[in-house]
Design a protein that fits this description.
The protein is an alpha/beta fold. It is built from eleven helices and ten strands. α3 runs antiparallel to α11.
């Protein structure tokens, strides 16, 4: 395995932590966050998208290893990804297991620790009516926390629309995959940005075709999905420019990525988790 380059990060009360999504590629983020927790590294502001929101919740409650268990051990035991779930429940992932059985019974989520955490944590969703990003912070209402993170993780086409406060929502990555600009608008003067793609990655530079029978009631959402590739590439260029200016530090996989968004090979996932942990370990916080 290639080694991550040593990096120095000046941690201040105005530092932000930005967590990209990416489905099962988010096990890289699990490794990063477990390393931060092992070292007692805390940020005053955290924002997570989709899988980044899920993993960020365990970071906010200080439940080290919980996100790894969800993404690897739970997958190995229950096989919660697959078209059988799509056919049976209209969702390619078993959300009943992930957002009810898991946080309520298997490894109960520590909502008291979340409420007591003085740091700000936002989860990103996409408003189906406007096609724009929404940034939610909730620490006291467990059901609303679940509603938000479920919406943030609801992938277009293969997951149903979720409601947050009565508003139809989908995956936050549609509108804002890498919310570093939002973090800076919130007052962050430097950010640690955790990406789940290798350096130089870009999506195909073209608009995506949205079949006419999908989201016919939501024209703005259809437009947001269609233009997502262009918006994502623009965000990557912004993040890399900010890195060159010394305003953000990027943590991302070093090895060529062999893990897919809906990856079910737990050995590959374990390897990517270990890489995330080692990449975070290469950062010196001052």
């Amino acid at each position: 395995m290639k080694s991550a380059n040593k990096q120095i990060f000046n941690l201040t009360p105005q530092s932000g932590l930005v967590l990209e999504g990416g489905g099962m590629r988010g096990v890289f983020t699990c490794g990063v966050l477990d390393n931060l927790m092992d070292r007692g590294i805390r940020f005053g502001y955290v924002v997570g998208v989709s899988a980044g929101a899920c993993n960020g919740l365990s970071y906010m409650s200080g439940q080290r290893g919980r996100a790894k268990f969800s993404n690897i051990d739970l997958l190995e035991r229950y096989h919660y990804i697959g078209f059988r779930h799509l056919l049976r429940k209209g969702n390619i992932m078993d959300f009943d297991l992930l957002f009810h059985e898991f946080p309520e019974r298997i490894i109960p989520y520590d909502y008291e620790a979340l409420a007591a955490n003085a740091s700000h944590f936002e989860m990103v969703t996409t408003d189906c009516r406007t096609g724009e990003a929404c940034y939610f912070e909730e620490r006291y209402d467990p059901q609303r926390v679940i509603n938000i993170v479920k919406a943030s993780s609801s992938l277009p086409y293969v997951s149903p629309i979720c409601n947050v406060d009565g508003v139809p929502m989908l995956d936050g990555g549609i509108a804002d995959s890498i919310p570093v600009a939002h973090a800076m608008e919130r007052g962050c003067d430097n950010c640690l940005v955790v990406l789940t793609r290798n350096e130089g990655y870009r999506k195909p530079a073209k608009r995506s075709f949205v079949p006419p029978f999908f989201y016919s009631r939501y024209g703005a959402l259809r437009e947001a999905i269609s233009s997502r590739n262009l918006r994502y590439n623009s965000q990557m260029e912004l993040v890399e420019r900010l890195e060159a200016e010394g305003r953000v530090t990027i943590v991302r996989p070093v090895e060529p990525l062999c893990v897919g968004r809906m990856e079910r090979d737990t050995q590959r996932l374990k390897k990517l988790y270990d890489e995330g942990y080692s990449c975070a370990a290469a950062i010196e916080f001052r």
